[in-house]
Amino acid sequence: MTHALSVSPLQMLLQRSSTGDLVSPAPQGEQLAEILSAGLRAPDHGHLRPWRYVVIEGESRSAFAEIVLSAMSRQEPGAPEKKREKRRKRFSETPMIIALGMHIHPDHKIPVMEQEMSVAAGAMNVLNALYMEGFGGVWISGPFCEDRSLLSHVGLQAPHRLAGFLLVGTPEDPSYIRSRPDITDYMASWSADMPVRFGADGGEW
Ligand SMILES: Cc1cc2nc3c(=O)[nH]c(=O)nc-3n(C[C@H](O)[C@H](O)[C@H](O)COP(=O)(O)O)c2cc1C
Predict the structure, then answer these.
(1) What CATH topology corresponds to 10-174?
(2) What is the pLDDT of residues 111-149, one digit of tens each?
(3) Which of 27, 106, 143, 197 has its CA 20 to 30 A from that of 165?
(4) By alpha-carbon position, which residue is closest to atom 21 of ligand 1?
(5) Which candidate, 139, 114, 113, 143, places its Cα nearest to that of 127?
(6) Model-level pTM?
């Protein structure tokens, strides 16, 4: 399923909203490969290719949900049972989960933050590609993503880490569009004799 061609690519970017209310199907096969390939089009200083995607679906989800809960026990020991149950449900019932691996070179001349930003830019491309193909998703994270045991289960040994997970499927309500802030509060025209101020900051520095 793809969106009506009458909507321009820019309008699609402006309409995309994250959602965790997802049902089947999730993309498969060649379509999934193309959507993830959009992630590999992210800017990548030094061509370090830091993106690693691990796809979790079907029967594997419940086993992975248990790994998430074990990681939570270590990283978020005070988490209320309600939060644990929400995570269990999300990881065992969402049609597809994609772990966003960051293959990091800590001592490279390209700063680690730039490597991480490339993974983030790739994740955004994947979210946009999902939406353009009629799917949806949401990027989630939390202290459990730092857990070294969980990281090893998705093939990430130190110093490699996770930028979080994409929950992926088909939006329950495909017409949902979140209201957005106004760009005039977030942009400024620079000139040599005027200080830069943004409406978003109440006109203050
Ligand atoms: C790195 C990162 C981590 C996030 N982690 C969570 C999270 O754990 N839980 C959550 O509800 N939203 C999280 N969000 C926010 C959602 O992904 C999403 O941006 C938000 O629901 C607003 O939706 P929008 O993308 O339509 O603006 C995270 C966003 C980013 C960029």
Answers:
(1) NADH Oxidase (3.40.109)
(2) 999 999 999 999 999 999 999 999 999 999 999 999 999
(3) 106
(4) 18
(5) 139
(6) 0.95
- Ligand 1 — pocket residues by CB below 6 A? 17-18, 138-142, 164, 178
Burial tier of 120 (Cβ tally within 10 Å: 0-12, 13-18, 19+): middle
Q: Which residue puts its alpha carbon closest to atom 29 of ligand 1?
A: 139
Instruction: Show the tokens assigned to 72.
Output: 């939570």
- Cα dist from 65 to 3, 25, 84, 94, 201, whole Å: 32, 19, 10, 11, 40
Instruction: Tell me the two tokens of residue 17.
Output: 């909203």
Q: Say how many Å lie between the CA of residue 109 and the centre of ligand 1.
A: 30
Residue 194 DSSP class = B
- For the stretch 18-62, pLDDT in tens is 999 999 999 999 999 999 999 999 999 999 999 999 999 999 999
Residue bearing tokens 């490597």: 115
